[in-house]
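Dear support,

Our group has been running a series of protein-ligand predictions, and this particular one with S-adenosylmethionine is the one our PI (initials K.S.) wants archived with full inputs and outputs. We had some confusion internally about which version of the output was final, so please treat the block below as the authoritative record. The input we submitted was:
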Amino acid sequence: MAFTFFFRDRKILEAIRDHALPALRDSRFIRIWDAGCAMGPEPYSLAMVLREHMGSHLFRNVEIEATDIDSSNLFGDTIEQGIYHKERLRSVPADILGRYFQPEDSTGYYRIVPEIRRAVRFRKHDLLSLEPVRERFHLVLCKNVLLHFRQEQRIEVLGMFHSVLEDPGFLAMEQTQKIPEEAAHLFQSLASNAQIFVKRA
Ligand SMILES: C[S@@+](CC[C@H](N)C(=O)[O-])C[C@H]1O[C@@H](n2cnc3c(N)ncnc32)[C@H](O)[C@@H]1O
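Confirmed final output from the archive:
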């Protein structure tokens, strides 16, 4: 079971905020696919960053499809409930912790506030099916997932991401994941210090 922690990768969250958000904030809806979301800390961290920078009115238009292969059948329930132990919250900045987490009980569990929970929806999905969960995303976030695949599978999955992205549409990955040469024509890098890309037409 992959159970990661909140604000695990600040750099990519900041890159999304700085490079993707300015181009998207006027969209009627912002549709995001977090592919390989594990138990939810990642899509919820992203939702909190977006809420911070968009305000409550625009944030209502954010829809995050959080997907994972979910071999344990636990991901959906965990994400829907939005309840996490404080162990997972160690990297959450204090102001964000105060605004978006409410103590659930005296055993160290916190629940994410409804405004943030509403923005994230979980679906079970196998990336290697190469069937997109839906079309017309503005951002695909796929971190620490492609490294588990063979190179030809990575190329196919990146091709699928490209095909479901709007124009402009953005792709974000972990720092160590490079785009294979065969898929390099699909995306243009936006930052030298983060793996954030814009779709090439
Ligand atoms: C190391 S975790 C990364 C979680 C999160 N993205 C992060 O960076 O914190 C890798 C996740 O990829 C998921 N995964 C592996 N193979 C997958 C597949 N074929 N389709 C969808 N998700 C997959 C795993 O279930 C796991 O939750």
